[in-house]
Each structure stands twice: as C-alpha cells, then as structure tokens.
Write a structure and sequence with these properties.
Layout lengths: L17 E3 L8 H10 L4 E3 L3 E2 H6 L2 H5 L8 E6 L3 H14 L3 E6 L4 H5 L10 H14 L4 E9 L5 H13 L4 E9 L6 H4 L7 H10 L4 E5 L5 H7 L5 E4 L1 H5 L7 H5 L9 H19 L3 H5 L12 H8 L9 H17 L6
Parallel strand pairs: 1-2, 1-9, 2-4, 3-4, 4-5, 5-6, 6-7, 7-8, 8-9
C-alpha cells in the first residue's frame, strides 16, 4: 500500500489551537502514533511522568517516543524545583516540543506526592518550578490546571494563580474548567461531578490577553470546539478523542485549513498493523498492547462491534497481527452486510 501520511513537525500556527489531553494509561507512545495517523497538526501530550520516576527509574522507558509523533509535549508531575529542572532538561534532550506541568490531577497518589491539583494552593511553588524549568530549557513550559480547589468557586483564586505563574515566565495555560475536589471524589468523579464553568477560562483570556489560554473538559464535538475557540485560544479534548478517534481525522481540514488526503479507516488500520510489526521487531512489544488504543476506530459504524471484538479477543493473542487484521476485516464486512431493522 502506498504511504498516505506525512507528519508536519513545525506548524506555523498557534500550537495550542487543538490538542489531545494527557491521560494516564492511555496516551502512551502507541496511542500517540495512532492519533498522529489521523491528524498532522494536533498537539499530542504524554501521560503524566513524575519527576521521581525520571530520577530513579528508566529514563528510556518513560521518555521514549516515535519520531512520527511530533508535535508532542511531555507532561511532568512534581513540585521540587531541582527535580523539575532535571526532568525538563531530559525532555529537551529527548526531543520533546514542550514541557507541561500537571497542576490538575486530584488523585490520592498525586496528593501524597504533593503535586497535581494541590499545587494550585501554592502558586509561588509552581512559579518557582516553572522558572527552574525555563532556566534549563528553551522549550515552552506550560501549565495544565483546574479553575479551583474543592468548593472554592471564586474566580479570584484561579486568576491569582495564573497571574503568579505567568510572572515566572509561563505563557500558555490549559484550563480544565472544573474544580478539583481533593477529598470525597474519585478521579473519575472529578471529571464528571464538579460543574463545568467555561466562562472562567474565557475571563482569564480577557484579563490576560497576551497569554495563551486553552480550555479543557467535557468537549466532544467540532461544534463544541468552534464555540470554545470564540472565547479561548485553544481547545484540549480528552476522552472523546480516545473513544471516538475518527473525530481527529476531521480537525486538519476544519481547524487548520489543511485539506490533505486523509487515510481511510482501513488504511489507518493497516498502518497500525505495520506499526505493530515494527514495535515487535524493535523491542518485543505484543500487538495487543497497541491494538487496545484503536478499538474506537469504527465507533458508530455498522460492523464496528464485531471488528472490535476481534482485536480485543484474548484467544487471538498468539496469532501475528496481520492474521488478526484479516479476521477483523472479515468480521467488519459481515457486520456491515447485516440488514437494518425497519420499524
């Protein structure tokens, strides 16, 4: 099959116009490779990598990525200035395009490490960390944060946080437009229960017109994206990008004025099979560790459920991915041929 994808590494537009959110256990390098097949320009974020993991763990395991992923940002979790500087320098050395500091995750594990959303209570600590990272790297250093902590719904809280951190040199903020409740809610509940208040992100843009303000949280459609771009500089999409990845295939034409030929779903699937074979040859990665990220490729399509069942069937794990690909395509065709019930 002819090559259908050519990534663009250095777009001449606002790099935060559209991005896919960092999502733990989901946005690994295999997921990001898949997403890059669907969109040339959208900024992709890693899962959060803690500074402790980079101090004491395998740097290669945590920082390795595929060259095709650019533009790609490294998200860090931590609060110690020396550790953040060390991690940011590593990120630059490994070739990332941006360093992002997580100030939005409310999980118990993150709170025990004194970073994530609880950092919003200590903006001077965040400012010190941002300055330390900027001192050792020429990359953009950005912050992803919430609009408030617990039941403090005052706009002044997030305004003062952004003002303090921007004084340290941070020029781009990704605003998850919900409060983070540090007690009483699970991370999943923290993505659903606190109300979305996009107007606070829009107000930040009005009050800090020279800063880049991107909005995140509950965004699912291109209409949503277009609406938010009227009040903010950018939009970050999270779980919808994972569950309904074909949405990404519309973004280059709709938002970046790039009408390049988009590969079909079948072509994307075959490119992923090629990648599975490459990953196994390079480091023994099994195909099913990669296939899990593309299970939404036929979301909403006839035959999609049968196709998804093939790629997630544990009994097929001993087979090479190209054989599974053939079985999955046959299942998709069978499902598409089933008659539609008419009431």
């Amino acid at each position: 099959m002819s090559e259908v994808f050519s990534p663009v590494a250095s777009p001449p537009f606002n790099p935060w116009l559209l991005s896919v959110a960092p999502m733990m256990d989901w946005t690994d390098r295999h997921c990001r490779f898949f997403h890059r097949l669907l969109t040339r320009h959208t900024l992709l974020y890693t899962e959060m990598v803690t500074t402790g993991a980079l101090r004491h763990g395998s740097t290669e395991r945590h920082l390795r990525f595929n060259g095709e992923e650019h533009p790609v940002a490294l998200q860090l979790g931590g609060s110690d200035t020396a550790d953040l500087a060390h991690a940011a320098k590593l990120g630059q050395d490994w070739g990332y395009d941006e360093i992002n500091l997580n100030c939005g995750c409310p999980s118990d594990r993150v709170q025990r490490g004194a970073f994530g959303a609880c950092l919003m209570n200590v903006p001077l600590t965040v400012a010190d960390g941002v300055k330390a990272m900027l001192d050792v790297t020429g990359l953009p250093v950005t912050v992803k944060h919430r609009i408030g902590i617990d039941r403090n719904e005052s706009y002044d809280f997030v305004r003062d946080f952004v003002g303090t951190v921007s004084d340290a040199g941070c020029q781009a903020f990704i605003v998850h437009a919900r409060n983070a409740w540090l007690d009483g809610l699970s991370p999943k509940e923290n993505r659903e229960i606190p109300p979305l208040r996009y107007e606070l992100a829009y107000q930040l843009k009005k009050e800090f017109p020279t800063l880049t303000i991107a909005v995140n949280g509950g965004i699912k459609t291109n209409d949503d994206i277009a609406k938010h771009l009227q009040g903010a500089d950018g939009v970050m999409v999270g779980r919808e990008a994972y569950y309904n990845p074909w949405l990404l295939s519309t973004w280059d034409a709709t938002f970046f004025n790039d009408n390049h030929a988009v590969p079909s779903r079948g072509e994307v699937e075959e490119l992923m099979v090629n990648y599975m074979e490459r990953a196994f040859a390079e480091d023994g990665c099994p195909w099913y560790a990669i296939a899990r990220h593309m299970l939404g490729l036929h979301h909403g399509q006839r035959g999609g459920r049968l196709w998804r069942q093939v790629w997630s069937n544990h009994k097929l794990k001993p087979l090479p991915p190209r054989e599974v690909f053939v079985i999955a395509r046959e299942a998709l065709a069978r499902g598409a041929e089933k008659p539609v019930d008419v009431c």
